């Protein structure tokens, strides 16, 4: 579909990459990987024709369409969401106008036997067939399906795009690209502005509907679920692995071992040659051999070894005082913005040492509850921060609080304590600030670089409650691994707001789901939550889950230590009771759902039998009549059973 031959790109003395050749075939799902600065985004720009290579050829067959989503783009603010999405079908609109014009001409003309009229009929027929094959009549349904999949509500469709944040407007641009159904999709970090539900929808779309895909992403679960081939840009070359990302990681490790052995052998050979030259350089009898060795040395092509992955380095949060048993207790917490209720009746308890995730669609209140915990915004209800809690908070605007006049190294050196000061350069390297980058001033850093620097700073501060709001948005995979390992080893409590399933997997033991103004608790890891989520269907997420409550005694400003202990004991007891309650709720919900499915099947069969009995020739068929009677009786019994199960479920709610 797209052929790349002998590609070379130079920005300075050393080429970014050279002599690159590969082919993108139909149905390829390619992950483009490599360290930051290797040229991934540049490669995508070259493939879509936005940038010209220094040398080489990118051959795109005539008629091949390419859709490109960059990390940053100029967004329009002069239309509604639906009208902006309709721009994807500009070609269809033009074709419809041409068809309408031809149809009008056919209706007005009367020279039915003329060659011109027959030519017009034939042209109209061909254009109309093409128009219908493109599915142009269904584009409104496609628009709604795609926007809904990416997280928009139906009520959002008529809202002006200017009312949405940059992340939501990027979703509109992604929707436009997907709606165009190009032959090749080039996606640069498409998941940065998506929540878990939208990422899952995009995964399914790319797997089932897209033709060829080339994507750059730091979301390991996403590229594993989507791709079947990995192109690695390393040492100025592109290595093609015909496997998905996880398998590529293993093959790459084997390849690097081979590189290291070859490099060591070459270095030994070079050392032996140099030693021979030095020993016999001034002996006339060895002059010929020395010159031969010098020429041999000049012909050796140095073997390059892939850079060492610093994610193997271990980081640990500095020790801090032990907090109380329950760092965060919420009781009937509510937050309104004007007449809009973000959430209500939020009652939860987070125990010391727990690692929990806040998940849900954007705008459902995850960051809002974090701000309530941080006491940054007013709320109603009771929210208690436990005894001796020291909070380390990473927010999206955290990067703006850095001192712009300090260098990267100075920023970290000012907070590092003890032996960790000896490892500052290693830490900076793990987060992509190696070499000269550590001497940059904060004021010249990009937004993503500032976020990474703020994350390093947080890693070195002594805290016992970590609150991280989308911490992985600007981290590559090695950096995320360093952060994840540090949090796992952290002996305090952690609240993580994230849509990155791979990052949360094995890290959290409890998931709080935000949706419909409620906060629901799910015991287990992120994939346990997603499994339940998928069983209950994406559309019903948030509607059939039980709202969990943990009753806490109201706190007063002058509460004593004894009252605090009673509150903590009460919370612990309520937690166990709620855990047992949740098991009963899940069992009751499953019984109701199974009953509903059975009713649906019986109703469908009853309708089929009814239609058959309406046919004159089968009206007196006793076999059909008996089956109809039996199915009707079973249906009535099942409806009665469903009512009982529903009443039982309501008792738990």
TrEMBL record:
GO terms for molecular function: ATP binding; ATP hydrolysis activity; transferase activity. Keywords: ATP-binding, Nucleotide-binding, Repeat, Transferase. SMART domains: AAA. Residues 2-260, 328-541 form the ABC transporter domain. The keyword ATP-binding applies. The keyword 4Fe-4S does not apply. Residues 548-581 are annotated as: Disordered. Residues 548-573 have a biased composition (Polar residues). Pfam families: ABC_tran (PF00005), ABC_tran_Xtn (PF12848). Belongs to the ABC transporter superfamily. ABCF family. YbiT subfamily. This is Probable ATP-binding protein YbiT. It comes from Xylanibacter rarus.
